[in-house]
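Hi there, hope your week has been kind to you so far. It would help a lot if you went through both lines with me. No rush at all, and the record is pasted right below:

***
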Amino acid sequence: MRAWQVAELGEPQDVLRLVDVADPEPGPGQLVVKVLACPANFPDVLMCRGEYQVKPQLPFTPGVELCGEVVALGAGVDGFAPGDRVLGGAVLPSGGFGELALLDAATTFPAPAALDDAEAASLYIGYQTGWFGLHRRAGLRAGETLLVHAAAGGVGSAAVQLGKAAGARVIGVVGGPEKAAVARALGADVVVDRRDEDFVEVVRAETGGRGADVVYDPVGGDTYERSTKCVAFEGRILVVGFAGGRIQSAALNHALVKNYSIVGLHWGLYHRYDPAAVGECHRALTALADQGAVRPLVSERLPLADAAEGIQRLADGVTVGRVVYVS
């Protein structure tokens, strides 16, 4: 089969090569799927650079989530059959940026019929992260104000839709007019272009000085530090990631004085400690997709030959929504 491989570490455009590789074979509890769609995720970028917490042995094929059609079952796999349309997290080194990929049956779920292949592939990591973050970790309630950073990106766009579905008032922060238009289309009640406006002042003005009840922060660094200036009494700042490139330090005396919570979110740990909750989340997301309340924003659908360019554009911070390889 054909697949993109990383044989040395560096920028995606420099290290990804489209090569012929052997078809993957399913081990016990695994599935081989024909890849129908695979979105670019920031972990794919970081793994190409060797900067992610998971460091697959070289060479490897990136692509951490996908939608696929089951073609083969490993020993002990129940509940799936060849031809099933599924989604889940790929088992590296046989990631989703190839014609075939491996999935663990335990983290594989039926793809919602309401979503096409590219949308279904994009429902897994970003929307599961948003659902666990907003509902399990931050306890978002209807009527609260949710501040979402990078609101036009893959992770942020999911949080905007999930926040609206939960009945929150959503303020989205973006960089540039194109991304501002995307955030409005996603349903954000207020959109802040950080290049022209100070989101701290906008949040204060929009909440009568109270601040945001929940801050969804996949950016980190200065964005986190500025967010502490506009978080509400008993507010919750969700630390989702550090796409801005700098891991901040938290001033715990400030959290004490202002009476807000700093809440970490490592979605992957739920697979280890509470796998039933991951299944519950998928059922909830499927129901929301069926209702039309959530639909992953896919901005580009690329053939396999162009997938590396899409991953590099994500690395460069110039994408909106999800850039997806479709077969």
